[in-house]
Write a structure and sequence with these properties.
This protein has about 150 residues and is an alpha/beta fold. The chain is built from five helices and six strands, in the order E-H-E-H-E-H-E-H-E-E-H. The strands form two sheets. A four-stranded parallel sheet has the order 2-1-3-4, sandwiched between helices. Strands 5-6 form a two-stranded antiparallel ribbon. Helix 1 links the parallel strand 1 and strand 2. Helix 1 crosses helix 5 and helix 2 packs parallel to helix 3. Bound molecules: 5-nitro-6-ribityl-amino-2,4(1H,3H)-pyrimidinedione (INI). 5-nitro-6-ribityl-amino-2,4(1H,3H)-pyrimidinedione (INI) binds next to strand 3 and helix 3.
Length: about 150
């Protein structure tokens, strides 16, 4: 049986981060953890390009431009959509998710989903480097793994 899986070596990997300004008090921690995890896996912050966008709704367009440029081995979307009292959350989170996955399939470039979609600020804090880990780091590790899987396919 042939088994293909990706290692977590990020050496020489060129990564694009698309980062929202919305909820920056949380997103800053996702970015910090993501940079650290690249370095822990042999990559370099010098090979990361960060693009700042207003909110999660704008993320797919920036991800698409980065994917189309052919300059990046993978892209990581980092943001936080926090539930309010209106259906706005569902539209923003839904469009971000759909847009990101369609870019990934269109260009064959891994795009990791590091956008928190949570019910409360407390849940966002828990997932940005406190008791539930750091979802930015997790997304970034997924991106590294996918780059290494795709090299073998
Ligand atoms: N954008 C976010 O990234 N997170 C949110 O929680 C959020 N909320 O709650 O509204 C949010 N809205 C802005 C949206 O992403 C767009 O920037 C805006 O609608 C302009 O297109």
């Amino acid at each position: 049986m042939e088994m293909i899986q990706g290692n977590l070596n990020a050496e020489g990997m060129k990564l694009g981060f698309v980062v929202t300004r919305w909820n920056s008090f949380v997103v800053d921690h996702l970015v910090k953890g993501s940079i650290e995890v690249v370095e822990r896996h042999g990559g370099s912050a010098d090979n990361i390009t960060q693009v700042i966008v207003p909110g999660a709704f704008e993320v797919p367009l920036a991800v698409e431009k980065m994917a189309a440029s052919g300059k990046y081995d993978a892209i990581v979307a980092l943001g936080a959509v926090i539930q309010g009292g209106t259906p706005h959350f569902d539209y923003v989170a839904g469009e971000a998710t759909k847009g990101i996955s369609s870019v990934m399939l269109k260009y064959g470039v891994p795009v990791a989903f590091g956008i928190l979609t949570v019910n409360s600020i407390e849940q966002a804090i828990e997932r940005s480097g406190t008791k539930m880990g750091n979802k930015g780091e997790e997304a970034t590790v997924s991106a590294i793994e996918m780059v290494n899987v795709l090299k073998q396919l």
